Amino acid sequence: MIEMEEVYQYVRNKKIILLMCIVGLVIGGYFFLFHKVTPTSTVEPKQELATQKDEIKKSKTDLKAKELQMIVVDVQGAVQKPGVYRVKDKAIIQEVIQTAGGLATNADLKQINQAKRVADQMQIYIPVKGEKTVAPAGTNSSGGSQDKKIVNINTATVDDFKDVTGIGPKKAEKVIAYREEHGQFKTLHDLTNVSGIGEKSLAKLKDQLTV
């Protein structure tokens, strides 16, 4: 009887241990599933923060690109607000005039080609009525044959230089190449830095050119 009692007690203890193991597995499985799911909710804020950083970076890049597309021009003469302005690259003189507050009442539009595109560091002079100018930057070169055309060395193309006595196509290409490499000419004397143009050549050219 004692042996049967011991066997019974042994089996009973085994059942209790087995039951505890099952309960432990259930509880452990619950926590495992719970902690496995919850990290997905913590990833979303990190992804959102990364997206915001990308958007900020893109905005700064776009802003920098826009700044690079701006040029500086000097507007003088018969405009409401003469001065130096930042305008869009490839803007035309009409747009620059509007930026400077518009034309003055005594402006002479007949001497201005408002459709001409401007270049960086270009000076635009708007003459007044009755003022005689020699084709300043932006003027219309399609006037009478008596008018002498002045070529702006900072904006002229090879075709523009063909009207200049003393500068052929090859020398014009050298002038343009120098301008593209070193930037805009500050004075006419800077032309002497171009190969093939010396002081004597400049003396003959200065009445036909401007900056």
Description:
There is one protein chain. By secondary structure, the chain is mostly helical. Among the domains are: 83 residues, Outer membrane lipoprotein wza fold like (Roll), CATH 3.10.560; 62 residues, DNA polymerase, domain 1 (Orthogonal Bundle), CATH 1.10.150.280. Helices cover 46% and strands 11% of the residues. The strands form two sheets. The protein has a three-stranded mixed sheet with strand order 2-1-3. Strand 1 and strand 2 form a beta hairpin.
Largest sheet: 3 strands, mixed
User: Which outline best applies?
Assistant: elongated
Strand order of the largest sheet: 2-1-3
CATH architecture of the domain at 58-140: Roll
Radius of gyration over C-alpha positions, nearest whole angstrom: 40 Å
DSSP strand content: 5-15%
- Judged by helices, strands and strand pairing, the structural class is mainly alpha
Question: How many strands?
Answer: 5
Please count the helical segments: 6
Fraction of residues in H or I helices: 40-55%
Mean pLDDT: 77
Fold-level CATH name of the domain at 58-140: Outer membrane lipoprotein wza fold like
The CATH class of the domain at 58-140 is: Alpha Beta
Low-confidence stretches: 135-147
Order of helices and strands: HHEEHEEHHHE
Determine the N-to-C terminus distance. Answer: 125 Å
